[in-house]
Amino acid sequence: MKVLKFGGTSVGSAERMKALLKLIVNDDPKIVVLSAMSGTTNSLVEIASLLRQKKQSEATAAIKNLEEKYANVAAELYAKPEYAKEASGLLRANFDLLRSFSAERFSVKEERVILSQGELMSTMLQNLYLKEQGVQSVLLPALSFMRKDLHDEPDMYFIREMLKRELAQHSDCKLFITQGYVCRSFAGEVDNLKRGGSDYSASIIGAAIGAEEVQIWTDIDGFHNNDPRVVKKTHSISHLSFDEASELAYFGAKILHPACVAPVQEAKIPLWIKNTMEPTAFGTLISAETESGDIKAVAAKDNITAVKIKSGRMLLAYGFIRQIFEVFEDYKTPIDMITTSEVAVSLTIDDTSNLDKIVDKLKRFGAVEVDSGMTIICVVGNKISESNGVAARIFSALANIPIRMISFGGSRYNVSLLVDSAYKKPAMEALNEKLF
Ligand code: ASP
Ligand code: MG
Prior knowledge:
The protein is α/β, with parallel strands linked by helices. Helices cover 39% and strands 22% of the residues. The chain has 15 helices and 16 strands. The chain has helices at residues 14-19, 21-24, 40-52, 56-77, 81-99, 108-115, 117-132, 156-168, 198-209, 242-251, 261-267, 320-330, 355-362, 390-397, 424-435, and strands at 2-6, 30-34, 138-140, 175-179, 182-184, 190-192, 213-218, 239-241, 271-275, 284-287, 295-310, 338-340, 344-349, 367-381, 405-411, 414-420. The strands form 3 sheets. An 8-stranded mixed β-sheet has the order 3-4-2-1-7-9-10-8, sandwiched between helices. Strands 12-13-11-14-16-15 form a 6-stranded antiparallel β-sheet. It has a two-stranded antiparallel ribbon with strand order 5-6. Strand 15 (405-411) and strand 16 (414-420) form a beta hairpin. Helix 3 (40-52) runs antiparallel to helix 6 (108-115), helix 4 runs antiparallel to helix 5 (81-99) and helix 14 (390-397) crosses helix 15 (424-435). It is globular. Bound molecules: aspartic acid and magnesium ion. The site of magnesium ion has 3 residues, from loops.
């Protein structure tokens, strides 16, 4: 069995939903994981935020807007009136639910129910379209098998058992459609796998059923060796190892949700990135193997803030870094890069929602400096921090770029550099020219 995931643009219009049939209707048994139609989750986030701000009438207007969009999609998608009618009846239920939430009594619980509607609607529409076209398929409700445990991690035992049961009930069926992103919390309430989480759903499902492979269908032909939005002349990378792919997914161009690599890596299941617009292109194959050779790709992450703590107390002290990290931990702020000297620590964060409070607390330890508007540029490849000459090649390419931090040797697959965002483009162009 294969698992195929299609993102928001792949189901983004009636036309795209129709076109999907060519990719999913064949003899291979498969589970198809769908995102919400593009733009929907953003609209749902907006609706929830209006309700939270007690702006009931604005929320109602936003719901109406979204409802019209779906009415148009349904009108275009189905040829037979009875299917169009069934779709509008089902959509009606989703929108009545959205309208039922009161700004007066609004909590995260309601918000999560709202956020789950996008995937529930896209899968319903797609599955009904398959039925109209005479294709046998089963809609598997993700809410009946996808669950998180006490630590907010996928409850693999539960997922495996529930999926086994669900699939066994339809042993004659080859095509299953299910929702990405939505899941239940440990307590059984509607929850989600965070923005962009449909990739993660596909990879969890793949690992749970021991799939032959997992395919992530998106609108680019795989990972590129550099960011095509920043530099000209990039090419797609045909093979990546799981480790290289996780580094790139975190830094890269939102091609793959970073959490998505771990489940398939552990289960040793190949992960493909494929392009819906160009289905015959090879894409990127992510597996335990990699091509030999060193540097594979350059990627960048913007909106990074660097924090430096300088203190004489750090000299020959132990426990100093732990105390600093604890401040970030208290404010649930992940740290990305870190570099140290004998008397100072520099680190980077991208979530600055608690930065002021963090800086206040850090002042207890020494002088604090904050630089915002920074970019992490990361060079990814196979064992690059152990290959002779790689550092020399990177730094000679960047001869004219001021570098604020360097992280080398943290993993064998990544060298990260922090630069002011103003130098991002020239840095990436220079690396593109000198490394590939
Ligand atoms: N629909 C969700 C989002 O927009 C999940 C996904 O598309 O992966 O974040
Ligand atoms: Mg995505």
